[in-house]
Amino acid sequence: MVKLATARECRAYSLGSGGGEGSRNRRWEYVNAGVYVFAAVLLVGSFLAQLWPWAVSQKTGLALAIIGLLGVVGVNAHDLLAHVAGVDYNLGLAGLDSQFVLVELATPAVHLASAVLTLVALIFFEIQMDRGYRHGLEKHGLNLLIAGPALWLLGSIHNICQIYERASGHVQILQKSVQIPLLLGSTLYLVGGIVNRHHIHTHSSASFTLLGRSWAWFCLFGSLLFLAGGLLNLLKVFKMQQMDGRGLEKLRGGAQERLNREREGKVPLILEEGRRRKQGDETWPAAARHEPRAAPVAPPPEGSYKEALVSGGN
């Protein structure tokens, strides 16, 4: 469904601050989490309206679902941009850590695509209610109602398979408490889309509706799981802010160290030392030819130490 706040140390939810403005980052993380909770509430309300027998409530329910999905699209787009901002928009640096690319970047991108597909499907059904039955819109809408949740499920599986090396056990528990409800909710959405399509194809009566009650029930329970995941994400964001970066996962493959050096404006020591040695090897022969040689020091005279001092003074 969504990626939401990552457990990475380099997260930057202020979209461009590069992790330098802590208070602004905290504010945007709470805004991001709050928008998702609001979108989940709209989805719950939309499917409750779908279960009412009146046609007006069903149309209102579709409108609420479309608004809720617009919020989900915005959250996923924000997550993707925020994770790229966490590495200062340096995708080459992010490529050093393959798991960062596959989880922090690929997961919100897949969720963004799936939310757009589901949104388009609901818009098709809204058009069907306004302008009457059209076979082409029905076919595409039913297929998109399966393709969107399928991508949601794929992204949720991708997200939950993240491997931690440095993150504390407390952070991992917070992560899983958010990821598992989102995974189960995506599964219910997919099952609902498949059951609804099967129901439409097996009933040839002209009185059927394109969105059955079984689909609404599956999506209602899925939305409740999405809402639970969003509330747990608010708790996770609060706890992670209190930790102040301690116990979070770092970039791998040397990407974290390189990111820190770039932010501090420092040159890697090994490169600087190699450059100095190379410059020294190039300038040493010429300098050695023009350097004056010191006069040889005469050996001390033979005799006692006192005589050596007297002869040295003379």
Offer a few descriptive terms.
mainly alpha; 314 residues; 74% helix
Outline of this structure?
This protein is mainly alpha-helical. 74% of the residues lie in helices and 0% in strands.
The helix-and-strand class reads: mainly alpha
Radius of gyration: 32 Å
Tally of helical segments: 10
Largest beta sheet, briefly? none
Q: Strand-and-helix sequence, N→C?
A: HHHHHHHHHH
The residue ranges in which pLDDT falls below 50 over 5 or more consecutive positions are 14-20
What is the number of strand segments?
Answer: 0
| Helix residue percentage | over 70%
Strand content: under 5%
C-alpha end-to-end distance: 96 Å
The geometry reads as elongated
Mean pLDDT: 75
Describe how the helices and strands are arranged.
Blueprint: H1 22-50, H2 55-86, H3 91-94, H4 98-131, H5 135-160, H6 169-202, H7 213-243, H8 255-264, H9 269-290, H10 305-313
Helix pairs in contact: 1-2, 1-7, 2-4, 4-5, 5-6, 6-7
Question: Can you give a write-up of this model?
Answer:
By secondary structure, this protein is mostly helical. It contains 10 helices and no strands. The protein has helices spanning 22-50, 55-86, 91-94, 98-131, 135-160, 169-202, 213-243, 255-264, 269-290, 305-313. It is elongated, with a radius of gyration of 32 Å.
